[in-house]
């Protein structure tokens, strides 16, 4: 359960999305599906999830000296909370 959610993605775009549409972005385990992500968010943060959208993203190519390499893919989940629910990552 705790291995599914890796970290919240706090960017300018995601902060705007959270304030306007009540939608939050997380980096999640690549093997997790939408139902598992929904259950993990609801249990960890004690909120109700309306929907979960997921996408697999690429990282920029890595480089070690002259050798170009590949970095592993990662999964991003956009979680929309039900009306009235929210959480604040920045507050102490």
Summary tags:
alpha+beta, 92 residues, Alpha-Beta Plaits
Write the layout of secondary structure elements.
Blueprint: E1 5-8, H1 12-21, E2 23-28, H2 34-45, E3 49-57, E4 62-64, E5 67-69, E6 74-81
Would you mind describing this structure in some detail?
With 92 residues, the protein is of the alpha+beta class. It has one domain (5-61, 71-81): 2-Layer Sandwich (Alpha-Beta Plaits). Helix content is 24%, strand content 36%. It has helices at residues 12-21, 34-45; strands at 5-8, 23-28, 49-57, 62-64, 67-69, 74-81. The strands form 2 sheets. Strands 1-2-6-3 form a 4-stranded antiparallel β-sheet. A two-stranded antiparallel ribbon has the order 4-5. A hairpin with a 2-residue loop joins β4 (62-64) and β5 (67-69). It starts with a strand and ends in an 11-residue tail after the last strand.
Structural class: alpha+beta
Unreliable segments of 5+ consecutive residues = none
Instruction: Give the CATH superfamily.
Output: RRM (RNA recognition motif) domain
Radius of gyration: 15 Å
CATH topology: Alpha-Beta Plaits
* Shape, principal axes of CA atoms: elongated
Q: How many domains is the backbone divided into?
A: 1
β-strand number: 6
Task: State the helical fraction.
Answer: 10-25%
Alpha plus pi helix count: 2
For the residues shown, what is the average pLDDT? 91
Distance between the termini: 24 Å
Sheet of most strands:
4 strands, antiparallel
**Strand content bin:** 35-45%
Helix-strand string: EHEHEEEE
Biggest β-sheet: strands ordered side by side in the sheet = 1-2-6-3
Based on the coordinates given, report the CATH architecture.
Answer: 2-Layer Sandwich
Q: What's the CATH C level? A: Alpha Beta
């Amino acid at each position: 359960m705790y291995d599914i959610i890796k970290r919240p993605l706090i960017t300018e775009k995601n902060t705007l999305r959270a304030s306007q549409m009540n939608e939050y972005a997380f980096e999640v385990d690549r093997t997790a599906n939408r139902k598992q992500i929904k259950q993990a968010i609801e249990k960890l943060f004690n909120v109700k999830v309306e929907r979960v959208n997921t996408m697999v993203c690429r990282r920029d190519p890595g480089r070690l000296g002259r050798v170009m390499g590949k970095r592993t893919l990662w999964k991003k989940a956009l979680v929309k909370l039900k009306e009235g629910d929210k959480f604040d990552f920045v507050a102490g």
